[in-house]
Amino acid sequence: MNCQEARELMESVWDLPDEDPRRQRLNAHVNTCSACAAEYELWLQSLNMVHVLEEEDIPGIDSERINRNVMDRIYRDFPWLVEETSKSRAVSRVFRKRLTLWIAGFLALFVCSFIYFAVIESPAKPAPEAVATGIIPTGIADTGQSLTGKDYNIPKTNSGIIDPFVVGMSPTEPQYWMLLSLLSVGLAMYFLMRLNRVRR
Ligand SMILES: [Zn+2]
């Protein structure tokens, strides 16, 4: 065995049993070579040091108990930390309650406006307009009524100009309330989800 082999063996020999032939060959080389003997001595010393450190590791003290003691100490010495935590929890609980109320209220609004839209609005279809003949009834001469105050139902003549497409969006329309309640419910759900994510 040469010195190179001996040094490589020194790194792995500690895992081998005492009667292993490689270990015995290493011992034989160390006894004859002073350079390898010095290195082997270093290895032995560092190994002993590791063993000593392992034995000095105090047994029986679990880190869980130490952690709990530290946390108890923190909560005793800095009580405002605990108050802050419970206060923010209470705030988020109140906020969550309000959001739930908000969702329930606007869902009810949506249902109401939908029912109104489906039941009341639909049958009230506009009566078909009179055929545009262009003939306007004349005044009645023998009744003594003047033309002023008598209103004519002038039918719309087809001039080729149509009204621009306007969606009926005013607070008097049930669609307005349906859309508003849907938007509000969506917003509230978004906030509720964000609140849940923050608390986790
Ligand atoms: Zn050697």
**Ligands (ions, cofactors included):** zinc ion
Compute the separation of the termini in Å: 63 Å
Radius of gyration: 47 Å
Poorly predicted parts: none
Give the oligomeric state: single chain
Secondary-structure element pattern, one letter each: HHHHHH
Strand segment tally: 0
Helix content: 55-70%
Describe the main β-sheet briefly: none
**Which band does the percent of strand residues land in?**
under 5%
The whole-number mean of residue pLDDT values reads 76
Structural class, by secondary structure, is mainly alpha
Helical stretch tally: 6
Shape: elongated
Please explain how this structure is put together.
By secondary structure, the chain is mostly helical. Among the domains are: 3-59; 80-121 and 170-200. Helix content is 64%, strand content 0%. The chain contains six helices and no strands. The relative contact order is 0.07. The structure holds zinc ion. Residues 3, 6, 29, 33, 35-36 line the site of zinc ion.
